[in-house]
Amino acid sequence: MTTIRQEDLIQSIADAFQFISYYHPVDFIEAMGEAYAREQSPAAKNAIAQILINARMSAEGHRPVCQDTGIAVVYLKIGMEVRWDATMSVTDMVSEGVRRAYTDRNNPLRGSVVADPDGARRNTRDNAPAVVHMEVVPGDRLEVKLAAKGGGSESKTRFAVLNPSDSVVDWILEQIPTMGGDWCPPGMLGVGIGGTPEKAMVLAKESLLDHLSMHELKARGAKTRAEELRLELYDKINALGIGAQGLGGLTTVLDVKVLDYPTHAVMKPVAIVPNCAATRHIEFVLDGSGAAKFEAPDLDRWPRLAIDMAAGAKRVDLEKLTKAESATWKAGDRLLLNGKILTGRDAAHKRIVDLIAKGEKLPVDFTNKLIYYVGPVDPVREEVVGPAGPTTSRRMDKFMETMLGRTGLIGSIGKSERGAQAVETIKRLQGVHLIAVGGAAYLVSKAIRASRVLAFADLGMEAIYEFEVKDMPVTVAVDASGNAVHESGPREWRAKIGKIPVKVA
């Protein structure tokens, strides 16, 4: 019998989550490199380049590829002949490994997990507990697969119980456009079909732990119904023209994975889970010989890219910014921001609007400022801030009326699109919305030259910070006239690809 020591599992989990925080899987990097080479949309190509440059910087600097260092998801296959030298439960050992990884002093990872989810939503500060799935199987070893799953992609999970005769492909193609760029494409789409509702969801998530293999599948052809679905969905999703970051382009998904399971005769449960450009997963085996070892990948397989951020971009002095100037910006314009910006996410926005509703004074002056939707990683060594990429913009849509109409704010910076109502509000109140590239957090952080907390320090990464930035690259996503690149870009590229009829408004 194999004996697994408690410390070996804890340390293996900790080392694995540290490892994937800064090393993308090699197959993902190679697929992104191929997507960059064939991309024809300038906006999408620029976004993919930033993601790849960020990936190399993170791998070399051992810092997170994304400020959202994910929620820990772990799959265990425990051999029936395994014995434990442990006093903790298996779930507690895994969560202790997560806690150790996320509080590592050399590379602290962002605590994103909140307890009491429909109440106080108190941050656990160490990203524990993990979400653990266990299966007991024949054998004498422990197989572990794990992922750090970002909230932006997780929140775009979709599920439905279809009728037996309904088309899985048609339903998925209806869902993908509603996900927009919030999940930071290009990435992988996981599909689970069958079982019961919860089984379909687990299948979809687990499928994302597989290696990218679309090229091999295309070369040999489908052998099963699941592989037929993979091929059909890959072609049809990319034909939607959504592209990198939802800006329009040739590659929305790098691969599609499908797992199925027998189900009840009256139903067809279907779940889809996207994996973002911050794809992070790994697998290892414990056989009683000690903790797992992880070998650093050959960084020669990471593309060496360089882009001139200043070419074609307009430098903006934020200390002199007025609504009159921002009104001249057009959707699609690339800007380099210089000066001071404020930050704020969900919790900070809620406090701000509550203070305004009570007629109380705000702790920060938003007049003629931009607010950046970000929750940064804690800094280490010489850093003024850790990786600090944008979070999903649409979560702040319900606060847009108050923020633009009552605070003097000029606009916002986030990732992906705004909802229709928020776009209308931006147009009516002559605001703007800018985007930075999701999945390029370490690269973005290099534009931040100073950082300090101004308000709501108790919120941790969700506090209001003041960042001083130099040449921070952003794109105008919604201009003061209500023009939105996340509408025009995919529409343009869907027409260019020419495989799906384009509706004329």
CATH fold title of the largest domain? fumarase
- Distance separating the two termini: 68 Å
The number of helices is 15
> Uncertain runs with pLDDT below 50, 5 residues or more?
none
| Mean pLDDT across residues | 96
How would you describe what is shown here?
There is one protein chain. Helix content is 32%, strand content 24%. With 505 residues, the chain is an alpha/beta fold. It has 3 domains: 1-24 and 65-149, no CATH class; 150-286, no CATH class; 314-489, fumarase, CATH 3.20.130. It has a 5-stranded mixed barrel with strand order 14-15-16-17-19. The protein is globular, with a radius of gyration of 23 Å. β13 (314-317), α10 (323-326) and β14 (334-343) form a beta-alpha-beta unit. α1 crosses α4, α2 packs antiparallel against α3 (42-61) and α6 runs parallel beside α9 (225-238). It is built from 15 helices and 19 strands.
Write the layout of secondary structure elements.
Layout: E1 2-5, H1 6-22, H2 26-38, H3 42-61, E2 71-79, E3 82-85, H4 90-102, E4 114-115, E5 122-123, E6 131-137, E7 142-149, H5 151-154, E8 158-162, H6 168-179, E9 187-194, H7 197-207, H8 214-220, H9 225-238, E10 253-261, E11 268-275, E12 281-286, E13 314-317, H10 323-326, E14 334-343, H11 346-357, E15 370-372, H12 400-406, E16 411-414, H13 420-428, E17 432-435, H14 441-445, E18 448-455, E19 464-478, H15 485-497
Parallel strand pairs: 1-3, 2-6, 9-10, 13-14, 14-15, 15-16, 16-17
Antiparallel strand pairs: 2-7, 4-5, 7-12, 8-11, 9-11, 14-19, 17-19, 18-19
Helix pairs in contact: 1-4, 2-3, 6-9
